[in-house]
Amino acid sequence: MAKQIKVSLIGNPNTGKTSVFNLLTGLNQQVGNYPGITVEKKEGVCKLSRGVKAHIMDLPGTYSLNASSLDENVVIELLLNKKGKDYPDVAVVVSDVENLKRNLLLFTQIKDLDIPTILVINMADRMRRKGISLDIPLLEKELKTKIALISARKGEGIDELKKLIESYTSLSKTPCFDALSFAPDYFGRLQKAFPDQSLYKLWLVITQDVNFRKFDKQDMSISSDFKIKSESELKRLQQKETIKRYQFINNVLKKGLTVDEKAATGMRAKLDRVLTHKFWGYFIFLAILLLIFQAIYDWSSYPMDLIDEAFAWLSEVTKTSLPSGPFVDLITEGIIPGLGGIVIFIPQIAFLFLFISILEESGYMSRVVFLMDRVMRRFGLSGKSVVPLVSGTACAIPAVMATRNIENWKERLITILVVPFTTCAARLPVYLIIISLVIPDEKIGWIFGYQSLTLMFLYFLGFGTAVGSAWLLNRILKIKSKSYFVIEMPGYKVPLFKNVAINVIEKTKAFVFGAGKIILAISIILWVLASFGPNENFNNAEETITELYPSLSQEELDNKIASHKLEYSFIGYAGKAIEPVVAPLGYDWKIGIGIISSFAAREVFVGTLATIYSVGSDEEETIKNRMAAEVNQVTGGPLFNLASGISLLLFYAFAMQCMSTLAIVKRETNSWKWPMAQLIFMSIFAYGVALIVYQILK
Amino acid sequence: MKTTIATLKRGQRALIKEITSDIIPLKLLEMGCLPGNEVELLQTAPFQCPMYLNINGSHLAIRKEIAAQIEVQII
Ligand SMILES: Nc1nc2c(ncn2[C@@H]2O[C@H](COP(=O)(O)OP(=O)(O)OP(=O)(O)O)[C@@H](O)[C@H]2O)c(=O)[nH]1
Ligand SMILES: [Mg+2]
To answer: Which pTM value belongs to this model?
Structure first.
């Protein structure tokens, strides 16, 4: 096989790297308008002409090669490690025509690294509206590069880019200009101490805050005739370097770029006046949140009812059309209800991801960061914590990863620790079914029902607990770290339909299949455990019950037999063993089993109950009806009443029941200490609150 | 009192004077906050923090402590 050309897409956040990547590779992934949304590297293959292929890598956005956060660090580690397997043959620097001056800073730095470099000027479709015109040949000459002027949105100019990539060997590798000429003495000595190294790379290694695995600063200080300067002296030099680079860029752009201010029109100022307004800004943010919850609860109820009925029907048809036997029972009583328990939540999860990706794509998310920074700082968080907290309402896993662009380590750690309190999509199935059981389906006023208000309350509770524990952690944790905060406010964009649709479909699919596998496995195990018993009590259920209640009708007898069997099955014994622990919270042993299995993943709860309750029941009823019919053995009232329902809701709101989140927290904090602390504290807290609430309400 | 970005009023424009403090993060300079460049205060959140600026065509928001370190001259 011919060697693939290795291409890295590098550029400032939000310049359209991911959009270009999608165009080149056809491989789709998340595209967002929140600066720094792509936090991991993404790879794909692009076919060039005559069977030549390029291996394309999409990198997180970075403002310069001087990294100040983790996601920027990825880029530098890649570019400094010449022997690494991902070291690019050609660097494609993607820039935004509207922010060319700022984008070129990074370009001039990359040019100093001795890599063939192509400059992509993206968003060409915005030039006319902004009154921008470019002298491409002049820019190519001054910047010593080849330029591809493209529009990722319209798909224009991509072929030209492909051609440039293909002929990468003819690209210039010389720097645009000598950026380190402002301190000849210092840099002269540095070069003399390490004659066989590239000067700019040496300089980068010396000035990085972040730790490099492969490059050791220690090695450098050993050399006797060269001393590393103090931190503030270095900083002074870096400032001078930056100023120098901008002087060069300004000179180039003076000749190569003209902006006709009169032709420029923009919505930004007008929209910002409202969306970042001291009162209206918050009002609109709140209204948007309300709209999201209304959509999740009310609008999605129609498709959900259909799905619910469809699964009940499917169960029934399977049962009547297949010969009866243990295998068919497994399908109709174990697998179908278990899967139904998750498929039913697709509409809600899709709505949630839809809203979140629209907010990101449009550029609105940065305004929320701006509005919330001051408030969040009170609690030891950053305005940038809002994005993880909001995406936490979808899933804690991407949310934990989205903390990577928080510059301050303490603010970042606290955000990671509290994010699992936000109401993730996996809690939704549990909330919805319990709310519909214990909260009356009535409306206050015109629009808002008690049920959707309860759901909204639970979301606020999640946020509130997250923020409250952040406040506590901020007092407890003694970590010193540099604090600063800079966020770019991108221009508003109409979300690209394709980007949003891909995002919603991929996220929903990942959620359903990820959860689906666990649920399928657990429901099979549960069904087996519930359909067999360890002793005679299980096998002789029919005779025992018929003897005990000779006067009952056949139907009542069947029900009695089924519950007797369940009680003496394996799962019944297991449940009985844990019942003393959960009884003070108002739960019976079946709920106890549901909670235990939820420690793998929360959304398993509904499937578990569906499986347990449907074993042995003949009517084609929905899960909800079966749960509603359940009786508390002690009080004789319904098992799911206000007290036990609220207690259960609160337990799920606070408990740390998700193995994947624990794993990702371990990865992001690089220690088991933090995820273990989360697991223990959150679970104890959940138990305590559920206990107190049940005892008060009962 | 020194005139800094933190003392600007909404809609006011100014030129950035020399950057002297070490506290100012390099990233801010890299985003265009350099001596001689023009800065305009577009909006502030409640309690004047953070501040939403247009610096030399870059739109960004910074916290007030940092803004108070950047001396400017009103134009
Ligand atoms: N008008 C216009 N918008 C574009 C174009 N290319 C991308 N966009 C939009 O610009 C925004 C950012 O695009 P991304 O591809 O996510 O940018 P990125 O460089 O990958 O961003 P980060 O991963 O956050 O660094 C999205 O809202 C895109 O829809 C273009 O050619 N024209
Ligand atoms: Mg991206």
So the answer is: 0.78
